[in-house]
């Protein structure tokens, strides 16, 4: 079974059902299937064969969905690239993936060409047809024209272990990590999420996450399409647009990060009201979710945010299911069928219930490898198939998991480990603090000092002594930051995650007090 075959089965079962809504466009399953066939014919005519890599550099558009499914139909590998990537990252992707062909949105063509030095892969330009009929580079084809008048191409009879998705995820390495997923992995991903969230025909899910991110492409879009639901696709996340789309389409599901829901709440407060009653599944993942922020959103909206935990390399792993009222505050959920977690202590043995440990993951959605990086693959995947994540989790006696933080984020002060998330959550429980981020910076006396960046609630500016006194009642004295820096906002990566590297860089220029 392949992801394309699952989608095709839905299209044949309900060809008139809506597959994608994008602005004023309403695309049925039958129409999307026909578009997938056209694109597959066009890619094949350009020489794309089983196992070849096809790069996609574009924003959110239904064409990207058709491209992904068409690449899968041919047994090739889709390589989504973030529109935020710049020359250094882009050149690495081209060297690593060695794509046979690149499909590039016209608005991003200049950036892409700067990666190639004129020696790039065959080029297809998406969205080039406009009033001025944009000039294309020599030899480039128009996405809207490929496959027209070409004989149909049958679906490739690939194995479940054949590659399907090659995505690039940031981390502690100097270049993006190339994560290769198989047909088996993507099918498991789509089916398991669809079942866990009880998605089906009639569901309309808001997808404002980038389709270049597995959270937007696989976790959400693919799960909706294999279940017969409708993808309500937005070109980007804007809280006002999301609220309008929820109300206009009576959306039943949406997915986001905590920072997205925080911005959504700000607009809801500005408007004074929002009709969110149609929502049944509101998943919250992709970054740490401080309980005070979750609680604030839920109290103002009456909506329960469903925690989830996975990685780009292994997914899904745990999640909170709709209607699971037994999930304790801060939990990211319980294991999904087929997934395993092992929590190890410093000695390599499993930790006791309730104790934090390094999370090792294993599931059918585990990546095949870091593509072209055998040493990195061997370092991160054990011989018996466990992925070493670098994440610190803990588990309660009922099997609920909680994210403590990242090993690389741990602050070691006078030989004692401090998890930034614990201090951040305590800070954000202060009524006058909207957001907080804690990092370690070099300190001659203690090895590392604890530095807190604080975003105050509007109109509020708590004093440092007040904050220290507040924290002293919640965390051990050695965890209380020595220095506080008040900022208007926190730096984030293009995917909305907290940019701790930028904060550490800024923090190293500051001398901690005390």
UniProtKB/TrEMBL annotation:
Domain AMP-binding enzyme C-terminal: 422-497
Keywords: Ligase
Domain named AMP-dependent synthetase/ligase: residues: 7-371
One GO molecular-function entry: ligase activity
UniProt-listed Pfam families: AMP-binding (PF00501), AMP-binding_C (PF13193)
Classification via InterPro entries: AMP-bd_C, AMP-bd_C_sf, AMP-binding_CS, AMP-dep_synth/lig_dom, ANL_N_sf
Keyword hit for Amino-acid biosynthesis: no
Domain of life: Bacteria
Gene3D superfamilies reported for this sequence: 3.30.300.30, N-terminal domain of ligase-like
Annotated protein name in UniProt: Long-chain-fatty-acid--CoA ligase LcfB
Native species: Streptomyces plumbiresistens
């Amino acid at each position: 079974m392949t992801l394309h075959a699952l989608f095709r089965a839905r299209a044949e079962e309900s060809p008139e059902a809506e597959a994608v809504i994008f602005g004023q466009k309403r695309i049925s399953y039958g129409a999307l299937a026909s578009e997938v066939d056209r694109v597959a014919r066009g890619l094949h005519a350009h020489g794309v064969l089983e196992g070849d890599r096809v790069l996609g550099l574009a924003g959110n558009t239904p064409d990207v969905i058709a491209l992904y499914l068409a690449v899968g139909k041919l047994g090739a590998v889709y390589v989504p690239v973030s529109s935020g990537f710049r020359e250094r990252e882009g050149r690495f992707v081209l060297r690593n993936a060695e794509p046979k062909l690149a499909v590039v949105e016209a608005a991003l063509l200049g950036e892409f060409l700067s990666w190639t030095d004129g020696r790039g892969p065959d080029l297809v330009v998406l969205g080039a047809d406009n009033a001025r009929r944009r000039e294309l580079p020599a030899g480039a084809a128009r996405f809207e024209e490929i496959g027209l008048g070409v004989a149909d191409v049958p679906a490739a009879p690939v194995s479940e272990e054949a590659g399907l998705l090659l995505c690039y995820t940031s981390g502690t390495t100097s270049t993006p990590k190339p994560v290769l997923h198989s047909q088996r992995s993507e099918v498991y991903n789509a089916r398991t999420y669809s079942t866990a969230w009880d998605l089906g025909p009639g569901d309309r899910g808001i997808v404002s996450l980038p389709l270049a991110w597995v959270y937007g492409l696989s976790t959400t879009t693919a799960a909706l399409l294999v279940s017969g639901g409708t993808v309500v696709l937005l070109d980007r996340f804007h809280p006002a647009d999301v609220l309008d789309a929820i109300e206009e389409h009576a959306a039943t599901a949406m997915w986001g990060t905590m920072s997205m829901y925080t911005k959504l709440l700000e607009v809801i407060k500005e408007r004074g009201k929002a009709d969110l009653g149609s929502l049944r599944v509101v998943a919250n993942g992709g970054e740490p979710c401080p309980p005070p922020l979750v609680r604030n959103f839920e109290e103002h909206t009456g909506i329960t945010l469903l925690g989830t935990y996975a990685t780009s390399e292994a997914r899904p792993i745990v999640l909170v299911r709709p209607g699971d009222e037994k999930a304790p505050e801060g939990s990211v959920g319980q294991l999904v069928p087929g997934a395993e977690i092992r929590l190890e202590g410093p000695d390599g043995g499993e930790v006791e219930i309730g104790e934090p440990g390094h999370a090792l993951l294993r599931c059918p959605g585990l990546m095949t490898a870091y593509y072209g990086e055998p040493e990195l693959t061997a370092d991160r995947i054990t011989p018996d198939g466990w992925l070493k994540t670098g994440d610190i989790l803990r588990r309660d006696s009922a099997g609920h998991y909680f994210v403590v933080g990242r090993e690389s984020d741990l602050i070691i002060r006078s030989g004692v480990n401090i998890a930034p998330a614990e201090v951040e959550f305590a800070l954000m429980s202060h009524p006058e603090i909207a957001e907080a981020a804690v990092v370690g910076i070099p300190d001659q006396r203690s090895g590392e000092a604890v530095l807190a960046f604080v975003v105050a609630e509007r109109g509020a500016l708590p004093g440092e002594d007040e904050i220290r006194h507040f924290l002293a009642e919640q965390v051990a004295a050695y965890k209380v930051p020595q220095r506080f820096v008040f900022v208007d906002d926190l730096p984030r990566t293009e995917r909305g995650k907290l940019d701790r590297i930028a904060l550490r860089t800024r923090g190293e220029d500051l001398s901690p007090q005390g």
